[in-house]
């Protein structure tokens, strides 16, 4: 993904630091900047959808390349006075002591730069962990896909294979069957009961039980198919896989944010409540870091809601501080 223009970190304390410059982080920053809050977005430049050719399932912006969507978002945040800073967060922790119940946080970037904020919005996204199958990762984001709503139309009518990773893969197969008449389910030792096999048979979904050895690549670099343990090549043009998803937590240990396991051992996410508020006062989470199923539109909406909630509570804090100052005058 192309690099973007960065600006220096501001001196002093800002209202909000947003950690993560994807759809959730930028939309949260947009809401805050439009409310005349001083806001800094720390963007590592590694969005989850970087390998994808386009964003889909987002009305009006359907078909927009991810880098273009993010660059437009950065421009809009800057238009309202927000700052977007390239960098990697290596530490984020509460400042001590807090100011009269109005918390402060210090965020440190690689290279030693720091910024202090009254509130934090964590929108770091997540990482996808693929099955350890040789040859699979090289096609990730093009012919190896995970989301029928993000990529399904683009791979319609292709010979598709589903590489099972657990119980969720059964539902995955039924969704991808909507997109193609040529679907093979590779069980990969996950087990498939008689009832599910009967349901698959009713939908003309073929089942392959022998172990998978590798994913084959053709001479032209395209995905050629799946090689079984006995060397048999099962031709496929597209592979679908349910990934294990893990919220990106690098540099955030000092916040002690609560986390929770996803059902079916499918990963971990930050735990969050109303509007993304966490159990740590002054810290919110939005987007895939807490909702792995959220597509770009949903992540952006969650960021907007978190931004509005942060602004509302900052308004309360500002009023309380002003009232205290008036009483002490």
What general form does the structure show?
elongated
Order of helices and strands: EHEHEEEEEEHEHEHEEEEEEEEEH
Rg estimate, integer Å: 23 Å
CATH architectural arrangement of the largest domain: 3-Layer(bba) Sandwich
Please state the structural category. Answer: alpha/beta
Q: What is the CATH homology-level superfamily of the largest domain?
A: FAD/NAD(P)-binding domain
Keywords: Flavoprotein, Oxidoreductase
Domain FAD/NAD(P)-binding: 15-303
Catalytic activity: [thioredoxin]-dithiol + NADP(+) = [thioredoxin]-disulfide + NADPH + H(+)
Organism: Nonomuraea maheshkhaliensis
Describe this structure in words.
With 329 residues, this protein is α/β, with parallel strands linked by helices. The protein has two domains: 13-127 and 244-328, 3-Layer(bba) Sandwich (FAD/NAD(P)-binding domain); 131-241, FAD/NAD(P)-binding domain. 25% of the residues lie in helices and 26% in strands. The chain is built from six helices and 19 strands. The strands form four sheets. Strands 1, 2, 3, 4, 5, 6 and 19 form a seven-stranded mixed sheet that branches. It has a five-stranded parallel sheet with strand order 8-15-9-10-11. Strand 1 (13-19), helix 1 and strand 2 form a beta-alpha-beta unit. Helix 1 (23-34) runs parallel beside helix 2 and helix 1 (23-34) runs parallel beside helix 6. It is elongated and about 80 Å long. It catalyses: [thioredoxin]-dithiol + NADP(+) = [thioredoxin]-disulfide + NADPH + H(+). This is NAD(P)/FAD-dependent oxidoreductase. Residues 15-303 form the FAD/NAD(P)-binding domain.
